[in-house]
TrEMBL record:
PANTHER family: QUEUOSINE PRECURSOR TRANSPORTER-RELATED (PTHR34300:SF2). Its main location: membrane. This is Probable queuosine precursor transporter. It comes from the Bacteria. The chain crosses the membrane at residues 12-35, 55-77, 89-110, 143-164, 176-202, 208-236.
Amino acid sequence: MNKIQNTRKTNLLIILGSIFLTNAILAEIIGVKIFSAEKTLGFAPVNWTFFEEYLLDFNLTAGAVIWPVVFITTDIINEYFGKKGVKKISFLTAGLIAYSFIVISVVTLLTPADFWLDVNATTPNGDSFNISYAFNTIFRQGLGIIIGSLTAFLIGQLIDVYVFQKLRAITGENKIWLRATGSTLVSQFIDSFVVLGIAFYVFGNWSISQIIAVGIMNYLYKMIVAIALTPVLYLAHDLIDRYLGKELSAKMMEEASEDKAFL
């Protein structure tokens, strides 16, 4: 491998790793907000009922908006750097997510400055407002959610890389959509229920039926998005192949499939 090829390979790793890290950490931090997908798009809530007890709509965490970027990036890293690449970046990301939560927890314990509270004491409508309370409420997440989220993230990533490589052994270099979408559908099925089970059943007071109902809704969204983003995966693959060059691209994918990729 010549100097130019080595530089491009390194640049690709840095770019993909940065995209993966940034979106994964952001998704965890903004995930505290729950939004209505139907109302955001101008539709009435679907009002679906599960188990004849729970009324569910497409109320999703804000983090779900950018998680698809993590899905796609995972599959691309797997394609060019193999399962070792995905595992290393996943463990690094999990560590940085934990670090982010620790920093946020410490910051919320700091005593707010009086002038900061005063200048933000009212809303534009003149209503009373406690910005310190709002800040802490938004950024501070429960221990159960943090543990559940990190556990689900790691399990999902490890399952994704395993299924991806198994499908790759069957499909070869063809049918990128099959191994990418297939691995995402399997891993996110597990992810959807693990995070809810740990956060709201083990550490919370949800029933099993509630976990199943909400998990189905979350998974349905992820499944739709995974399929819809297939063209984006092909576009990214094409751009990367052009950047690397046919020779280097083929070599990297071969090494990744044989678990010999350098990282």
